[in-house]
Automatic annotation (TrEMBL):
InterPro entries: PhnaA_N_proteobac, YjdM_C. This is PhnA domain-containing protein. Pfam families: YjdM. Transmembrane segments: none annotated. It comes from the Bacteria. Residues 6-51 form the PhnA protein N-terminal proteobacterial domain. SMART domains: PhnA_Zn_Ribbon.
Length: 184
């Protein structure tokens, strides 16, 4: 039986990460020996996201909350790597991996330190958090001032800059320095 057939049988014909049945492909989880034990069966959406990590949609990968409990080592390893890339340390800490699985998962993570966003009090911020502005801020180019005490809901993190987040104030999407925010 071929690897693709084994993966299809193991997954029940759905993506092993999100459960979709659209455009399923086999993905080898490096380092791989090409077998079904070191591969996962994923949909085209997950595959595109994994191949283009700079444009990953965190909302799509909410499915990792379920796949992190998979019995399949390759699925757990890929989930661990994706959660690490998305800086979801809270979920990474909940995962149970055998020592060999953890070594495999960590071998595929780049050694560059992850960008950590912290508010003015040093509290770590996550995408989707709600923060409060602690100082009146003039928003250049928009013609208004973001007032102290304004809640900014469902923030986005700027992946290459720990000092900025992105959020909506008065219906306008703006970048805000984390030193002027506190998590609520």
């Amino acid at each position: 039986m071929g690897v693709e057939k084994e993966l299809q049988s193991r997954s029940g014909g759905i993506c092993e990460l999100c459960g979709s049945s659209e455009g399923l492909v086999a993905l080898e989880v490096a380092p791989s020996d090409g077998s079904s034990e070191t591969s996962v069966y994923i949909c085209s959406t997950c595959n595109t996201q994994i191949e283009n990590p700079d444009s990953m949609d965190e909302n799509h990968f909410n499915c990792l909350n379920d796949s992190m409990w998979s019995e399949v080592p390759a699925v757990k390893v890929l989930t661990f790597r994706l959660l690490s890339k998305l800086t979801r340390q809270d979920l990474v800490d909940m995962m149970y991996l055998e020592d060999s699985e953890r070594a495999w998962a960590e071998s595929g993570i780049s050694s560059s330190p992850a960008v950590v966003h912290k508010d003015s009090n040093g509290v770590i911020l996550q995408a989707g958090d709600t923060v409060v502005i602690i100082k009146d801020l003039e928003v250049k180019g928009a013609g208004f001032t973001a007032k102290r005490g304004t809640a900014v809901r469902n923030i986005s993190l700027v992946h290459d800059d720990a000092e900025h987040i992105e959020g909506r104030v008065n219906g306008t999407k703006i970048f805000i320095l984390t030193k002027f925010l506190k998590k609520s």
